[in-house]
Input
Amino acid sequence: MIAAIGVRPRERGPNEEQNAMNLRRFSPDTPARRRSLTILSGLLIAVAGAGSLPAQPPGPAAQPAAQPAAPAVEQPRSLGDEVFQAPRTLNDWIGVFFYLVLFVFSMISLTVGLERLFNLRREKMMPTALVTQLDQMVQAGRDTPDNLRALAEASDSPLGRVLRDAMLRAGRPLAEVEKGIEDSMAREVLVLRAKQRPLSVMANVGPLVGLFGTVVGMIFAFQVASQAGLGKAEMLAKGIYLALLTTAIGLTIAVPCMLVLAYLNARIDRYVVEMDSVLLRLLPSLGRMEQAAAGRGAR
Output
């Protein structure tokens, strides 16, 4: 229409074109602006919806992971349990053998010791009745060879036997009679000491058997420890203390045996001195017997 009326349109300058582009860019009707508004509105609606949702109850607390069960602590075994357990290995059987040997030694020592303590008494060595009758005969002047010989035959005791041997030499020189009495008393002492000789044997052999058992036990203990390897010191320690037990038992047997033996020897020596003092009372009687025998011989 403008062309029809002959009016020529006005040309736009550079500034006008730039302003028109800016207006189109920031206009609310542009597609970019519409997309931005749509995205922003969606985000606001999502945030508002999330805020309006009810709070969820807290879930159950997570259970801690099960701890592994602690290993059972082995209760320490007593020495009696170790010693009296059923033998399972060759080392155990060897230990049982030595224990049995030492047990037999202890029974022998106990039996002999009790028997000697019972029989080695004053009443058994020099009965009171014999000593009393002998004193009465000497004081009454009835100490004849026949009376003394009958008195000695009636008593089966060391003092009675020594008196009987003295009467066998009655009438001989006094020195010969005294020598016979000494020999007879020496024989009695030998017999008494022979009866307690098992105590001496047990006192000497018991520790040796225990030491032998200890040496054998330690050999097996070191062998087992060497086969088990490093870090098994408890096995070696167990074998050593079980092996040393035999030595301890041997010493336990030997010490009481030596004490009892010393006590019995002292008792024998005391009784010998007392018997000698009793027989000294017969020296005047033996002297008269010697004179009577000499007088008969002179006739």
Summary: The chain has one domain: 86-298. Residues 86-298 form one domain. Residues 1-9, 57-62 have pLDDT under 50 and may be disordered. Residues 100 and 203 are 17 Å apart (CA to CA).
